[in-house]
Sequence to fold (171 residues):
Amino acid sequence: LFKDDENDINEALKWYEKSIEISNENSPFISSCYSNIASIYEEKNKHDKALKNYQQALLIDRKNNNLEGLYYCNSKLANLIENKDKNSSKNYYLAAIKYAKLLNDDFYIAQAYLKYGDFCYKIGQNKTALKYYLIAQNHINKDVYNDNLKLIEARLKDLKTTLQATVDFKP
Fold:
């Protein structure tokens, strides 16, 4: 972890791989190693390797019922593949929402709904995007998550403009 914090990603990668090699395969901490490796590969634009490592972390998190890991990996996988496999990406986003709700954490819930709303917006499902943006907005604690609230409000404004442009107004 120290090497990762120092931005020595090649050295960090070696340490994460060594940790996996010497750890018990049932250890819940191994999923963090795989997730961290995936993040490093994602930063290096090695998406296939990132995908493989997030999937491995997801398997371990399922085995250990690690809800936070399940939320995180599903979110990352959804985002990573959304341009390649929209159906699988949708399923990962919906799983992230499920695990965020099980964690009962408003920040995670709002983030999951926001990300799924963004996905729906990108694929032209504007009404669905609107629904999920509004749900995300309801989960924001206005005092604590002001930046996220502003982000959601900006998305709603963009969506309003898009929806108004697609409606045929008649005098």
